[in-house]
Each structure stands twice: as C-alpha cells, then as structure tokens.
Specification:
Strand content: 15-25%
Oligomer: single chain
Strand order of the largest sheet: 3-2-1-4
CATH class of the largest domain: Alpha Beta
Number of strands: 10
Distance between the termini: 23 Å
Order of helices and strands: HEHEHEHEHEHEHEEHHEHE
CATH topology of the largest domain: Rossmann fold
Shape: globular
Bound molecules: pyridoxal-5'-phosphate
Radius of gyration: 18 Å
Length: about 280
C-alpha cells in the first residue's frame, strides 16, 4: 500500500501516511513510512492494548485515540477520523486498508508465496483470522492458483458477519454488538475481503480464545497474539468437522505474538465488545 502510493505520486516527499488500525497494520505503516522518509499518523481505538500504542510511538507514529463504540461510520471512530484528517491535509495519504486492493495484492505477492515455499508445496489447509480480509483473500488466491484443492478457512469472533456473508452473499438483517477479538471480526464487509478463494469461515468466542491462549502458554511457554489464539481455539473446537488426515499439512496463521496483549489477554478478565 505504501509503495503503491509512492509509485503513483499520491503523497508528496516527506508527507504523512494515515491509517485507522488496531495496531499491527499501523506499525507496518509507521516502520515503512520512516524507512522511506515519510511521517505517519495512526488512529487507534481506545480498546487497543497499551503495549501496541507504545510500540507504535517507538516506531515514530503520531497517535490519535478514537472511540469505535458507535461503529466505524461514527464521526468519533478511527476510520472516520483517519479519512477526514487525510482529506483535509494536502500532504497526507490515507492507506485505507479496508478498501485498498493493494492490501490483498501484498499478501498475494508475499505471504502466499512464502507459505507455499516453506511448506514445499505440501500445504493442504490454510487457517487464519479475518479482519480486513486482506490476508485470507491474497494468500487464498495465490495458494488456490498453485493447487485448487487447498482448503482456505477463516476465523472470526462469534457474532461477526463475514461467515454469513460468505454463505449468503448478503449482510444479516440484524447486526448485534459482539465480544471482540483484537484484529478480527467485522460488522460490515470490507472491500479488501474477496470471498472467492474462501471455503469456510468458523466462529469462536472471546472466552474460548482467552482460555486457549492461557492453556497454550501454560503448556508451551509460548505467548501467542489474540487472533492467533482464535485460530488455535478454532482448531480445538472444530477439529472433528475438519476431517483432517495424518498426511495433511495445515498452516495456522499467527499474525503476531502475545507480548502485545499481556494486559488484555493474559492478565485481565474484562470483556471487550466490538461495535465495528
Ligand atoms: C493481530 C491481527 N490479527 C488478524 C488480522 C487480520 O488480518 P486481515 O486484516 O488481513 O484480515 C490483523 C490485521 O491487521 C491483525 O492485526
């Protein structure tokens, strides 16, 4: 997304890359902006973990904390504020991860080939969390081009709408707030979600995700990120439905690690509710 904006002269030298992010895409943008000689301004939700905000600041991003409790269309939301800030600043460019086809393309060009190569072409199933949809759409498209039979499976929190959208190609008549898992789960269909390569989307609860994260840490000493734990919870809950064979190669996609969620995932019992 950054390279595309620079190549198309969408941002003047030294300009500001702007994004609404739960932290991780924002961090990628902050790092690349710095490396290419630009500034970055990231609008994060007040539900974002303090660890992620600190890392963003260390990477040089300017941060603005927003309130997504009334949805991403609300004027106080990250998405709304990022978009309006970029519209009013002539030297700013909104990377717009939810509606930028370069999001899918980046995963098609890099993440997909990396997974194909690392599994020696033996991958049979790919399981990842779905937020903007960029990962599953880009990786899924690439993998299916290599081998049409690879199963592409997504995971989202219970109550998110992409499972319904994948099956019905419509949004549910009623969308209730749901318990969030940071990075995944939506109450709208992002433009960067291409359902074409996706075979199924599973849903897991916030409680099960937290429980599995803790169990995994206790057994392995590995702290996994929130959406990574959702993928583990999915495998745990739906293993019987997956009909996996001993010869299958299932890739579980872990976008980040648990050190960014110590305060939220590993030592806090409060629930967070997503409206967006
Ligand atoms: C921690 C984490 N998990 C999952 C996702 C979802 O990935 P995608 O937006 O490609 O669907 C993100 C997105 O930034 C993320 O930060």
């Amino acid at each position: 997304m950054i390279e595309d904006a620079i190549n198309r002269n969408c941002i003047p030298p030294g300009g500001i890359f702007v994004e609404a992010s739960s932290g991780n895409t924002g961090l990628g943008i902050a790092m690349l902006a710095k490396q290419y000689g630009y500034r970055s301004k990231i609008f994060v939700s007040n539900s974002c973990s303090q660890e992620k905000i600190s890392i963003l600041e260390e990477a040089g991003a300017e941060i603005e904390i927003c309130d997504n409790s009334n949805g991403l269309g609300d004027f106080q939301s990250t998405q709304f504020k990022a978009q309006s800030y970029a519209a009013m600043q002539p030297n700013a460019y909104f990377t717009n991860q939810y509606y930028n086809t370069q999001n899918i393309r980046a995963h098609y060009k890099t993440t997909g080939p990396e997974i194909w190569k690392q599994t020696g072409g033996h991958i049979t199933h790919f399981l990842c969390g779905v937020g903007t949809g960029g990962t599953i759409s880009g990786v899924g498209r690439y993998l299916k081009e290599q081998q049409q039979n690879i199963k592409i499976w997504g995971v989202e929190p219970t109550g998110s709408i992409l499972q319904h959208y994948l099956k019905e190609r419509s949004i549910p008549a009623q969308i209730a707030p749901f318990e969030s898992i940071e990075g995944i789960g939506r109450n709208f269909v992002p433009g960067s979600f291409d359902p074409t390569p996706v075979d199924h989307i599973f849903q897991v609860s916030q409680d099960d995700t937290k429980a599995i994260a803790t169990a995994y840490r206790n057994e392995t000493g590995i702290l996994c990120g929130f959406s990574s734990a959702a993928v583990l919870a999915c495998l745990h809950q739906y293993a019987a439905d997956m009909h996996l064979k001993p010869t299958d190669t299932l890739v579980l996609f872990f976008p980040d690690h648990g050190s960014r969620y110590i305060s939220k995932l590993y030592s806090e019992n409060t629930k967070s509710v997503a409206h967006a």
